[in-house]
Amino acid sequence: MFITDLSIRRPVVSSVFSLILIVFGIFVLLNSMPEVQDGELIVSNGNHLETVGEITSIEKASNFSLTEIFERTEERVVQVNIRSDNAINNRGNMGSGFVYKDDGYIITNHHVVDNAERVTITFLDGESYIAKIIGTDADLDIAVLKVEIGSTYLQPIPIGDSSHLKVGEPIAAIGNPFGLSGSMTSGIISQIGRLLPQDSGYSIPDVIQTDAAINPGNSGGPLLNMNGEVVGINTAIQSATGEFTGVGFAVPSNTVKKVVPVLIENGVFHHPWMGISGSDVDPELADVRGLNSSKGFLVVSVMEGSPADEAGLQEMTITKEIDGREFAMDGDIILKIDDVVVRKISDILIHLQREKSVGDEMLMTLYRNGTTVETILVLGERPQN
């Protein structure tokens, strides 16, 4: 499985969070693409802060038409242009972004500005300004930029609550696909709570899946609900060709609310971390281990000195071949974290992202040697790659 940048080279990625994840398909990051010249079409493939995403002056309403949403947001969506060492023929790459605060903060994807030597922001009327990178998080693919200009252009788009999204709910995406500024598409929420692998080896949890058409150049642009609120940052598509095939992904707005204020304050976000790897329980393993259901996450290994090690979690040490398959005969199986039933690894990652920070305690309910035990794990800081 590959995560392929559309203009900046990105390597093959497997799963993790120090955890083994299996995700099928080819994911294409929708960022930067070479600038389109006139007459040319280029197709390419723990933190506790009180502040959250700023609520802005767009009056509250519901069920705006697509036309009304576009008119209210078009001047708040920007084109992000970069120059970097690996730009072909000294030409840049581009993506999208949107105004977050009226004092100059712009949100986009990390992969849009990764390795950038120079970043400029272009508004819908063609005015461009040099931007400074304030902070980025590669693991969540979020970046915060800042421009020093007057407030005329700096009207933020309100940040919505992505936890309220429902499958089938209509949404809209605005960005700069193939360099075509101010483009809008629409669709529905196809699913929520997806995992999206990243170059870093970790996966973005709680990702939104949509069928709204998003293409190269859309990266960093807003995914909007019908109230005209940002509910996600358009980030990637699943495609074998590099072009949209009906499956797109966006980082949820509640992740933005948690991470962006920290990036503005500190330039870096510290992720909570357990220090385990493993795999989801399946019906065959559940039967071999005597579980009543196939829910849970098997701890295959525990990193020495990690929070999981200090909490006494036990890793797999014994396997047995049954009908040609090797089964783990020991190793803790995580059944619950706090009050969340663990069906698979995504439940753990989503809970960590939504609710936990470095230093927080987490109650672990484990299946161990035929009995259920509980232990407290104090979350550490995820090591830097």
Order of secondary-structure elements: EEHEEEHEEEEEEEEEHEEHEHEEEEHEEE
Helix content: 10-25%
Radius of gyration: 22 Å
Strand order across the largest sheet: 9-10-11-14-13-12
- Ends apart, CA distance between termini: 20 Å
CATH class category name of the largest domain: Mainly Beta
Query: Could you give a short account of the major beta sheet?
Result: 6 strands, antiparallel, barrel
Principal-axes geometry comes out as: elongated
Beta-strand content estimate:
35-45%
CATH topology descriptor of the largest domain: Thrombin, subunit H
Structural class: mainly beta
Number of alpha- plus pi-helical segments:
6
Runs in which pLDDT lies below 50 for 5 or more consecutive residues are 1-28, 32-61
Oligomer: single chain
- Number of E strands: 24
Q: What integer is the average pLDDT?
A: 84
Number of domains: 2
Explain how this protein is built.
- The chain is mainly beta and 385 residues long.
- The chain folds into two domains: 251 residues, Thrombin, subunit H (Beta Barrel); 110 residues, Roll (Pdz3 Domain), CATH 2.30.42.
- The protein contains six helices and 24 strands.
- The longest helix is centred in the C-terminal third of the chain and has 14 residues.
- The N terminus is likely disordered.
Keywords, separated by commas or semicolons:
Pdz3 Domain, 2 domains, 6 helices, 12% helix
